[in-house]
Amino acid sequence: MSTLCNKNRTCELCGISIDHKRSHARFCCRDHKRKTSDMKRDYSVEYQRNAEARRAKALKSYYADHEKSKKKMLERQKRRPAANAAATAKRRALKLQRTPTWLTDFDKLKIKCLYSVAAMLTRENKEPWHVDHVIPLQGELVSGLHVPNNMRVLRGKENIAKHNRFVVV
Predict the structure, then answer these.
(1) Which among 148, 74, 84, 82 is positioned nearest to 111, based on CA atoms?
(2) What are 36-69's pLDDT values in tens digits?
(3) Are residues 25 and 86 both part of a single domain?
(4) 30-49 vs 51-64: helix crossing angle, rounded to 10
(5) Is 154 found in the same domain as 103?
């Protein structure tokens, strides 16, 4: 009965009618199925091979107009103060939620020092440096804590390229 509903079906590769095939068939022959599978695999491999180049290109364009981007972001924040306040509050709450109660004063001092080092490197090198959470506070698979052992000073480009990822090694 399902074949009656699927009339006028065609092969995804060549466009030949495949109404006579089973209802979930997508190709007219095995050869076309294999060719399509090979093309998808090759595309996937090539896409992965070029991932680093795409990432570098995106960062290059981002930093080409970095000052312009910063101005644009500030203007957007001024136009949408409620959305900006909500995002800032969410980030602050997550950081507070991920800051354990057992954190000592010395640990808090280490965190302040990391932020001071990042600010100094930004000032001296004329490029942004960030304090990065090795295991992200808002990770998809795992969420880290706001503790000194989970933090490091990292070039802004590398931190932005990292996004919210955590790679297990």
Answers:
(1) 148
(2) 888 888 888 888 888 888 888 888 887 787 778 8
(3) no
(4) 40
(5) yes
Domain that holds residue 25: 2-48
Q: Is residue 69 part of a domain?
A: no
For 85-94, the pLDDT digits (tens) are 888 888 888 7
Q: Which amino acid is at 68?
A: K
pTM > 0.90: yes or no: no
In a domain, 127, yes or no: yes
For residue 54, is it within any domain?
no
The secondary structure of the chain, three-state, reads: CHHHHCCCCECCCCCCECCCCCCCCCCCCHHHHHHHHHHHHHHHHHHHHCHHHHHHHHHHHHHHCHHHHHHHHHHHHHHCHHHHHHHHHHHHHHHHHCCCCCCCHHHHHHHHHHHHHHHHHHHHHCCCEEEEECCCCCCCCCCCCCCHHHEEEEEHHHHHHHCCCCCCC
